[in-house]
Design brief:
single chain; mainly alpha; two-stranded antiparallel sheet; 49% helix
Length: 323
């Protein structure tokens, strides 16, 4: 009889140990998800509600057992709202830690250097996981860069970060400007930088292009920048055709062929490098530049040299069948 009692006790302890081991294994072991999935925790969602959603999605086997294990093994920290990427076979332990950490899925929207505000507006509306309406931002107010955002975040919130980044960057660069900079205000710096941005896609040329335009401004010579003709026509979008003679002669506050000085405002959102170029222009005597046929430009000090370079460029274009 005594032996039977000991046997029953041993069996009971073994069963208890087995159940306890399974209980722990169910918390720390691999979960049922065969592949990674996203889980969205909405505002006001409780852990109970999240567990039910995760059970339906297949991230956990049972909401009930998940919650019972969470009470014993998990932290009492609240779960945070947002979109989470649950890896394949993530354990209950890892999932709870993730929801409590707030490490949500980071999505990126990239604004290229020189993108006009109308296209920034379209870019933000193309991000399907952003919500809410926005108006087209003031030209030159956005700093081109890559910005992270969360699913369900407002477009206005992302735009605000882009604009604050421009304010901070401009303030930083303005404090470090060279005494050779021709611009008198930060806004003038953005305006001239937007022209530099549109005139060259070669990073090494930015300071040289800025030097040419700085020289022209110093002597009252017209900038004659083609992008300033196009901007009032398309608001920065590609023109898609050759510029008309009437457009070259148009007076509208932007066209630098029809007036001396700078446009009344930026014609795009310039990047940091172009702003730096304007605030630290190359020391040069050059007043002219024209395409060299290789993606860059050739610079000249005199009109005679420039006309020779222009003829070379026209010859290249004729060879290509462009004229």
């Amino acid at each position: 009889m005594r032996r039977l009692g000991c046997l029953i006790l041993i069996v009971s302890l073994a069963i208890t140990a087995f159940l306890a081991l399974n209980f722990v294994r169910g918390w720390m072991g691999e979960g049922p998800a065969e592949k990674a999935m996203t889980v969205i925790i909405s505002e006001g969602t409780t852990l109970t509600g999240a567990a039910r959603d995760m059970e339906k999605a297949g991230a956990i086997s049972s909401a009930r057992t998940f919650l019972s294990r969470a009470k014993i093994f998990g932290s009492k920290a609240p779960i945070r709202t947002g979109e989470y990427l649950i890896p394949a076979h993530a354990s209950n332990h890892d999932i709870l830690n993730m929801l409590q950490s707030g490490k949500v899925v980071a999505r990126l929207v990239t604004i290229p250097e020189g993108m006009p505000s109308i296209l920034v507006h379209e870019k933000l509306f193309a991000e399907k996981f952003l919500i809410g309406d926005i108006t087209v931002s003031r030209e030159g107010s956005v700093l081109p860069d890559s910005y992270s955002y969360e699913r369900g975040e407002t477009r206005q919130a992302v735009l605000n970060r882009m604009q604050q980044a421009m304010k901070d960057t401009l303030a930083e660069l303005w404090r470090k400007r060279s005494k050779d900079a021709v611009v008198k205000t930060p806004q003038e710096a953005v305006t001239l930088a937007s022209i530099v941005e549109k005139e060259t896609g070669v990073p090494s040329e930015r300071r040289m292009v800025a030097g040419v335009y700085s020289n022209r401004l110093k002597i009252g010579m017209r900038l004659q920048a083609d992008p300033t003709i196009i901007y009032p026509i398309t608001q920065g979008k590609p023109l898609g055709r050759r510029i008309l003679k009437s457009e070259i002669e148009a007076v509208n506050g932007y066209n630098t062929y029809a007036m001396a000085g700078m446009p009344k405002g930026p014609i795009a959102n310039p990047g940091r490098a172009s702003i730096e170029a304007v605030l630290h222009p190359a020391k040069t005597k050059a007043l002219y530049f024209v395409a060299d046929g290789k993606g860059g430009h050739v610079f000249s000090d005199t009109l005679e040299e420039h006309n020779t370079n222009v003829n070379k460029w026209f010859a290249i274009r004729r060879t290509r069948g462009e004229l």
